[in-house]
What does this fold into?
Amino acid sequence: MPTFQPEVDQVYAGARRLRHKRRVGLVTAAVVLLAVPAIWIGANQDQKKADAPADSPVRRVNVPGVTMLDAPKVSFMDANLGFAIYNRCRATEDPMCHHAAGVTTDRGRTWKSLRLPEIPDQLEITIYGKNAAEFAVYANPAFTMPAASKSWFTRDGGATYTEMTKTQPDLVETQWGFGEYDIECPALHVGEGRHEKDPACTTKLVKRGSGPIDPQPADLGLLPMVLSGRDGRIWLVDRDSDQQPHRVRVSADQGKTWQDLPSVPQDSAPMLSWDGTDVYVAEHPGQWIQGKVNDPLRISRLIAGKWVEQYTLPSEYSSAGVTAVGDGAVLVIAQPVGQAPSDVYYVKDGQRLPLPMVIAPGAAGAQFLPDGTVLITVDNVGQYLGVGSGIDREWTFITY
It folds into this structure.
């Protein structure tokens, strides 16, 4: 994997837009779920607790000098670097503080408190960085409070900060899996699930930092989506309607030529493994009827230009999150019917390989970190870090 070493100012500006995209994603969840490597289908939000794998270390977030009132927001940048952010907290040295933060560089074994810039009380913070010395602090209005967003960066671990005012290329978005390519001017949402082309601009496939590619792919749909594999391939999904199968194309020469692949069902999109070599699709061929599905979830793999079914979710499960982890395997977080704990397991060569994790009923999503680490986030409880490749991973549970 190439070393990611953009200028620090570029990293910070890109991270601000990444955070904005994540906020927008909460509003347009149906679109975003298709755009990330992990797809969650039919999630239940009633998450209460999680137990760590029996054979994995358990590490609690414990930032010196901070008395935790609420669970921190924890953001890992890679297998070892993570930031813990407390909003509306109380610190032992300043009982009136509203913000505090800490950093770990050893996968949660130890935590160090961070000095923050002066942040207005009505703003909540997020931190992104490439190491414990160089990071950015982003402060945005909490809820609907009328306050201006602010951002700062530091190159000395928080000893000094400089407020950011300029815009730089989206290099952090590239690092975080959004890829080298993006769609410029997609269709506008006009209500009731309908979209129309924006008459003021033309939908184009663009390379970040370079502009539109030439030639442009023909017949872009209303809501095209692009995925960039780390093997150099570009995947283009044309979505003209939520009710019709989506056209899939792939380019191995930076968009000069395109190969058509079999379409994928509505509300589905290709899932790429971290290295881009494995490609899957998860589909629910049935419809939701009174809270139940009449057909099981199917997972198919792209083999020799065709979608070949690899696994069908057993009928005792009502929903599942699926992530392509590489080496011909997928990670499945399966929610049984009722309120039983979710099961977590790999599927490889049609075989189910259980992982010793127990996750209470609810939404636990998986994603890749920039270095290929798999991160499973269990709402308000903790995070599992799977370090390694394919199914050969060392799991650590970071609990709040």
Observations:
- The longest strand covers residues 317-326.
- Helices lie at 8-27, 29-35, 171-178.
